[in-house]
TrEMBL record:
Entry-linked PANTHER family: RNA POLYMERASE SIGMA FACTOR FLIA, SIGMA FACTOR F FLAGELLAR
Organism: Amycolatopsis nalaikhensis
UniProt domain RNA polymerase sigma-70: residue ranges: 81-94, 246-272
PROSITE patterns: SIGMA70_1 (PS00715), SIGMA70_2 (PS00716)
Family annotation (Pfam families): Sigma70_r2, Sigma70_r3, Sigma70_r4
The protein's name: RNA polymerase sigma factor
Family listed: Belongs to the sigma-70 factor family.
Purpose of the protein: Sigma factors are initiation factors that promote the attachment of RNA polymerase to specific initiation sites and are then released.
InterPro entries to which the protein is assigned, alphabetical: RNA_pol_sigma-70_dom, RNA_pol_sigma70, RNA_pol_sigma70_r2, RNA_pol_sigma70_r3, RNA_pol_sigma70_r4, RNA_pol_sigma_FliA_WhiG, RNA_pol_sigma_r2, RNA_pol_sigma_r3/r4-like
Amino acid sequence: MTAGPHVTEAAGVTTHGDAAAPAETRAGYDVDAGIAALWRQFADSPDQASRDRLVLHYAPLVKYVAGRVGTGLPTHVDVGDLVQSGIFGLVDAIEKFDPERGLRFETYAMQRIRGAILDDLRSQDWVPRAVRSKAKEAERAMERLGARLNRTPTDAELATELGIGLDDLRDFYGQLQLTSVVALEDLVAAGKDSGSLVDTLPDDDAVDPVAVLVDQDNRRQLAQAIAQLTERDKIVVSLYYFESLTLAEIGKVLGVTESRVSQLHTRAVMRLRAKLVEQTGS
């Protein structure tokens, strides 16, 4: 009489006759087989229940991609919002995936998830991408000039570095106005992992020595950066952020138009950001 397959389990090892495999390996095979079966079921009958089970299985991909995309974004961007956008990308990937093309689903899904997150971020940004790109280019040019000249570059020098006219540069400052509405809040965190200036203010009810030291250091760096601005830029920053004057009111103080004050404000913020990044990197 021939004996059938002999199955025993001991010390985490499952044996089938002479074959032996770790229990973890067998569990991996079971998961792979179950997902393969679920994909076949979804292909034959793409119902919501099967789709939801696939979404649940591949959900960690969304968290991974969202974490990668979120690196380097402003602190006000919530990774949870990125995950929510990525879920839509995952659902879209599941519904459009074609196994016959020979592409791994994980590879295909990560592209769709990343695309969905970026599309959602762009839809929330009221500033045109071209303006964002020009702003980055101007900041890099200002950093290069500052390092080369050992001082804050003038508008004429920055315009020459960018290869544009002085009037074009001032028009560009006007375009950047919306991008720097709350820029002073983020300046303290330039080049750091810390939060905004509001996050560093001491609690009125409890004095945290560490928070006090961090706040003093942030204020010192900001004061040093402001001290290196031109006299007119210092006045604009002081009146706007510390005296709470409107752009129109500042224009009356300086004897210039509100539009010109807006340009001066944008220029001052860009120079402050460049100085703070330089201080952090030194």
